[in-house]
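*** Query protein ***
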Amino acid sequence: MRRRAELILRFTRAERWVHRTTAALTGVCLATAACLYLAPLAELVGNRPLVVTVHVWCGLALPVPLLLGLASRAVRADVTRLSRFTPADWQWLRAVRARAAHRPAGKFNAGQKLYAQWTLGSMLVIVGTGLLMWLTHLAPPSWRTGATFVHDWLAAAIAVVVAGHIRMAWRDREARLGMRTGLVERHWAEREHPQWQATDAEREHPHWQTTDAER
């Protein structure tokens, strides 16, 4: 049982909504892609036109949660953090390589920043190539062939990276609770994200409140 006095706010509702909605859309896109690409799944599910429609529209919607989330100051602050590498991030990467216990990190560590940057970049490419495949009049056949090649292999890479992301999250219960409830234990923040805990957490959210349902 986590004590309220020992909890600090890590993610606001807007930040959690962006993460959950993007994750849901990504999951649907990967599931429908598997149904379109793998014959056994295609036969099991059937109704290929419906699967294509769901895949296309969920793919087009992928950037929407982030774009809407930018209305939140907390989300904008996260985007700024995730897009900047600091000396501490390079130290974190060297510490991981050396398997050192002390790994300096702000609100997000270097691994999380790399994952976020990969996610945004791959999202833009996957949506762009998907549009070329869907709207056949936009480009000549050779372009569509190239787009199909990139789209298929990038989708496979995304599936692998997402699986790795889920695996890492599964190994850290407090990180999962932070994304689910928005709250993390103070000692976890001090251990995993010492620079964020020391400089940002309470200053940004000095008057957070929670309910029993959020614990």
